[in-house]
Design a protein that fits this description.
alpha/beta; seven-stranded mixed beta sheet
Length: 288
Amino acid sequence: MDLPLEITPAPPPYLLTRPARRTAPLVFASPHSGRAYPPDFVAAARLDPLALRRSEDGFVDELFAAAPEFGAPLLAATFPRVFCDVNREPWELDPGMFDGPLPAWVNTASPRVGAGLGTIARVVATGETVYRNKLRFEEAENRIRHYWQPYHAALAALIAETRDEFGYCLLIDCHSMPTHPAHVGNAPDFVLGDAHGTACAPRATRLAEELLSGLGYRVRRNDPYAGGYVTRHYGRPREGVHALQVEIARPLYMDEARIERLPRMPALQADLTRMIAGLAQADWSSLA
């Protein structure tokens, strides 16, 4: 059984696993699988440990752990999404969460903020409020400067070095998705998000789709997840950087209610390793 919560006082903001030798123009990233919860954050939350974990993309870093074996780095955030969400702009903040006015340059009007899911989330995925009391802006600033910014600095550096070495880069942004009410009875196993064709070359999306479909999975594009901040910010095909978001249906590998690995998780991991191999062995010279 998985522990309900991993509490650690000072986690590194990310783990970076590099291959012994770079052989593929790929970067894999898992921004939402972090499960190291700072004790001060846990103390300030009104939710129990299991409820806090509802927003995690549980174990996604493990599902893609084979990437370095195929010549590509794997970057994984260690801090949880509910603590600081790196798939948002750095300063998407809800003014109602704070005990004083926010600086004028903060983005307080985005749809994500309105939904309670800004850079510092007001609610978890199930809609429950996270905090007992209002926060100080300095708390948000600390999280963004010491967690959000280091993660993105590492990601940007990986993308730049990959493009420098190969002439182009394909970022695979790895996520998991909860059961969606609209898809009951016809739920996809994977959703590939390329911002409706603007974040990466069609060939990249098509190959990922073919690899997964060939393994027997139901694959959908851009519905309901077309790609978040990472996909849209880094995906710049004209500059040789392509970004594809991969969403995995959680029932394929985990118990959503208990946040526990299911016995079939190794089978999915093996299939994702096959997908990684297929992507790594492809000729991507057309991405330049």
